[in-house]
Amino acid sequence: MALIIAGIGVGAGSGYGAGLVLGSPDDAHGAQEAVKTSFVPVPHMVAPLVLPDGRLSGYMAFEVQLEVPEKDVDSVTQRIPFVQHAINLRTYRTPLAAGVDGTIPDIEKFRQVVADAAKEALGQGVVQRVAVTKAVPD
Question: What whole-number distance in Å separates Cα of residue 106 and Cα of residue 109?
């Protein structure tokens, strides 16, 4: 019984000490307020599915959304055609075909293509995340 009481005391004391040293997550002096974000959709597009050897395997239809700070939603929405152009310039050079027969898209590579295109068209740090909502062979 004494060990249980001692264990509770040690646990409570170390939790209190850690709170003093590290601070609580709600502290206003050290915590930065989280930036509110929104998703901006990129209209339906079609991209080539290129095999690693450079051959065309087919096409894929895709839809993506870009997560951006709420304050940037209007400017990003206006610049979506530039993002689409940058995506088009990258997709034919990037082997996006996956699977045995190359008819399915490699989502991770495609997400990276879109992220790079968005960085070029919108600037560094505007797009926080790329969400691929649809990618199917076309």
Answer: 6
